[in-house]
Amino acid sequence: QIQIEDDRTGIDVQTLKRAFSDNLFYALGKFPEIATKNDFYMALAYTVRDRLLRRWLNSQETYLKQDVKIVCYFSAEYLIGPQLGKNLINLAIVEQVRQAVEECGLNLDDLIEQEEEPGLGNGGLGRLAACYMDSMATLNIPAIGYGIRYEFGIFDQEICEGWQVEITDKWLRYGNPWEIPRTEATVEVGLGGYTESFYDENNRYRVRWLPDRTVKGVPYDTPILGYKTNTANTLRLWKAEAPESFNFQAFNVGDYYGAVNEKTYSENITKVLYPNDEPIQGKQLRLEQQFFFVSCSLQDMIRLHLATQENLDNFGELFAAQLNDTHPSIGVAELMRLLMDVHDYEWEQAWEITQKTFAYTNHTLLPEALEKWSLGLFGSLLPRHLEIIYEINRRFLHEIRTHYPNDVSKLSNFSLIDETGEKYVRMAHLACVGSHAINGVADLHTQLLKQDVLRGFYELFPEKFTNKTNGVTPRRWIVLSNPELTELITSKIGDNWITHLEELQQLEPFADDPNFRNAWRQMKQQVKTRLARRIEKRCGITVDPNYSLFDIHVKRIHEYKRQHLNVLHIITLYNRIKKNPNIDIVPRTFIFGGKAAPSYFMAKLIIKLINSVGEVVNNDPDVRGRLKVVFIPDYNVTNSQPVYPAADLSEQISTAGKEASGTGNMKFSLNGALTIGTLDGANVEIRQQVGEENFFLFGLKAEEVSQMKSQGYNPWEFYSSNEALREVIDQISSGLFSPEESNLFKPLVDSLLYHDEYMLLADYQSYIDCQDRVSEAFRDWDNWTRMSILNTARMGIFSSDRAIREYCQDIWNVQAVPVKLED
Ligand code: 26Q
């Protein structure tokens, strides 16, 4: 072995130190004396990247040589979070690196915090994709994550006078050491134009698409290394570029600005992530984004396939493409087009390959969140795809006619085209017919899909439907976020749980061990203190980590998630104190965090309400610090990591039947928080696992919600018959929390009193009673600790490793492929 190689791969402290200084000098062009903190971070990132490159290349080589089946995860969003800490853990070199940088006079945690995360997603769906990439690598499953390299990710949030303000996320500003552009794998994507038919040299009827513009897709690859394994998969994100830097023809005619304009236009496609976690009506650029990344990815897969195979006959045997919601579902039509128009396949065989390749995951039950595109927009951007969709539909409706000969209403219900008013393409229908498997993301969610949203499709092909309850990766959400808990668990049961999370069960007997309970409580205190320090620094609010219950509600701000129900509880407690300042009350710190879609007025008003109530409660001398309300600004992966470990109570209080699964609920409970929650999404399964005596349940059930709605729900009845509730609502509307503008919260109050779509008033009393039980339980520290231990011990099945094993077995038919480090 030559010395150079050692400097790039060695993992002893001396070599790491030398490599770190080398990278600082040769990659960043700095001496330590003049380096900034970011220079040091970059130098360390390169040092770590060097150490995973061998594994990455070997993994890719192994896949290429062995004809293995590869999972292609298609997702418009990835929220992978900061990479440095995670890679150190997966390489198992945290301690050596800590020492190495310390010997250079630096602190590892400071450097880790320096990293700007790629915020290439909105919330749950994007983060799920990231957890799944981690698990696939850890389980040695060959995988490629395909997506979009947004130049601006989800906006940064600032809070000004209690309001959300959006700031552009310039995450690439200081460079990204984790990605490598692969310009040699650039592909071209067409848009717009028209189609024409012709007869080819064999006199076969053919169609071709003549787009009126093309865009280049350049892949940027990020390695995703598994935990203590040699597998490093690829996250391949596409950036849009103009085909030529100059349109010379236009330039010669003198249209200089027109030429440059065209360039900016193409490059717009991957400029910015849409910050909504629900579809927005008819934005052409969004459809362009979806088609762009899907077309790039399918072309890339075909190129990879043809590198070792003669034709595409067995494409579906060597690739499993998972559609992360309907956002990439145009892939069904695009693969059909590529197979037929470019690779000469007949319809029947192309369709067989397509269905075999794709599977579809649904992430929503809200009917208004089902993606659809108006025919006009769709046809002008993707004329050939619209034709293909019509033909898929024609054949599909023919089957429907034979299946339900006497029921014409079935045709319009199943049609891929919504013709009830303005005409739309229904993307979920396209995904369902084009896939061999369809899944929901929690038991209840899948059940409701079968009964409700996709009922017809379930009746038609029940065998396509399965449930795949979400999971989260214990590497990021325990080992990295909560070193104190990690150490405590490992001291009792060893560290095998990190890859076999069911083994947390072995903690159960210790729940009755007084010494262990003490250690657990101390550990919780320690992580709560850590969060308290951050809150002090970030928000200037002093909170008490020792006696106060940390009651945490972090997630996107949405009416169905009911952050404002939590606020009604806070005001209720505040009123109790005001009426009786000496009341014996369990001190609580209410912690919120989350972004609102910039155009979602009500969600932004909820943020303002939280901060306004905080202003009053935090500063009222009668409260004597027993209640504190904190809104952590700019909630993202980085800022969330210190939050989950510090929770005593996890708020999972969505209206039953609205939250598909939730994944934050899992992160909290795994870290020993108790949950207050409705029977919604994965809460149902969490409660089954941890035991009903260790879970605070309240509220209407999903069927009761729909029942009450169909019987004509009247929120006013709840308001007028409940004195405490009435007082709270009246205080909000009278301007108690908005003295400078008493009508400020009128839209919110009106929405509750006159519509209350999400049944807050119906669930109010049940929620308050349940919170009272929480407070009583918290007084018994010892038993609370026991329940906390049992939560962690029984949450093992919510590992994303378990979820990925299920996808591999039931949907993808993919096997693990071990990668050797030597070649
Ligand atoms: C679609 C079209 C146009 C613009 C935006 C969108 C869009 C973008 C993001 C639609 C939906 C999303 C994100 C949805 C999401 O995050 N859903 C969550 O997925 C989690 C993982 O399965 C679940 O745990 C959550 O319950 C679900 O809300």
Description:
This protein folds into 3 domains: 1-66 and 83-116, no CATH class; 69-81 and 123-242 and 251-470, Glycogen Phosphorylase B (Rossmann fold); 479-798, Rossmann fold. It is globular. The model has no long low-confidence stretch (mean pLDDT 96). With 823 residues, it is of the alpha/beta class. A hairpin with a 5-residue loop joins strand 7 (194-199) and strand 8. Strands 1, 2, 5, 6, 9, 10, 11, 12, 16 and 17 form a 10-stranded mixed β-sheet that branches. Helix 12 (331-342) packs antiparallel against helix 13 (347-357). Ligand 26Q binds at residues 122-125, 128, 274, 276-280, 286, 327, 363-364, 371, 441, 470, 659-663, 681.
- Reported CATH architecture of the largest domain: 3-Layer(aba) Sandwich
Taken as a percent bin, the fraction of beta residues is: 5-15%
The structure class reads alpha/beta
Bound molecules: ligand 26Q
**SS elements, strand count:** 23
> What's the CATH H-level homologous superfamily of the largest domain?
Glycogen Phosphorylase B
Helix content: 40-55%
